[in-house]
Amino acid sequence: MIHYRNAVIKTDSSVYEPSEDSFLLADAALSEIKDSERLLEVGCGSGIVAAVIKANTNAKIAGIDINPDAAKCTKENGIDAIRGDLLGCIKGKFDMIIFNPPYLPTSEEERTGGWLNTALDGGCDGRRIIDRFLEEAGRCLDVKGKLLLLVSSLSGIEEVKSKMEALGYTIEIKSQERFMFETLAVIVATKT
Ligand SMILES: C[S@@+](CC[C@H](N)C(=O)[O-])C[C@H]1O[C@@H](n2cnc3c(N)ncnc32)[C@H](O)[C@@H]1O
């Protein structure tokens, strides 16, 4: 069991174990949510970020994850969740979409397969899933909707910011923290 900011969740051995990145994103989301916004968490994993939001705000949050064990774990932790690949099967619009993506630069040889690899593997430059997500996300955001995206220096924070700007978002670094091997940041990108 993991306890964090009034939330208590169970985890699963085939689902990403909540880590510094999960907690940084959860804290950034708490300080960004103002009222009863409609939120979607992509790549919800165990459901830790969504559970923290549910325990501390009036926001309505649901999750989606490509790993069926993650969608199940999130549901067992009290959050509506479905299995799906990024936003492909999402029909509605949201005030905020949050994502702690797989971002580790991973070559073909380093790829191990399995759901824990899927949770980490960002392709050769670390941005394979991030880039796909950014290209799809605008369609699912309401007017003035926001993306909260966790990014790492390992996959290039400046490159992600540039892509967001090119897609027409206004961006702000919400929080940033230095860890042993990387700097993690949460970018808030507002649809203009
Ligand atoms: C770094 S983990 C984050 C998990 C959780 N949100 C957290 O912060 O602890 C990334 C998550 O994204 C999911 N994921 C990877 N590729 C995905 C895709 N194409 N569509 C949906 N989810 C995906 C993984 O299964 C994993 O649960």
Automatic annotation (TrEMBL):
The keyword Disulfide bond does not apply. One of its GO terms (molecular function) is nucleic acid binding. GO terms for biological process: methylation. It comes from the Archaea. Keywords: Methyltransferase, S-adenosyl-L-methionine, Transferase. One of its GO terms (cellular component) is eRF1 methyltransferase complex. It holds the Pfam family MTS. Residues 33-105 form the Methyltransferase small domain. NCBIfam families: hemK_rel_arch (TIGR00537), PRK14968.1-3 (NF011529), PRK14968.1-4 (NF011530). Belongs to the eukaryotic/archaeal PrmC-related family. This is Methyltransferase small domain-containing protein. It comes from Candidatus Methanoperedens nitratireducens.
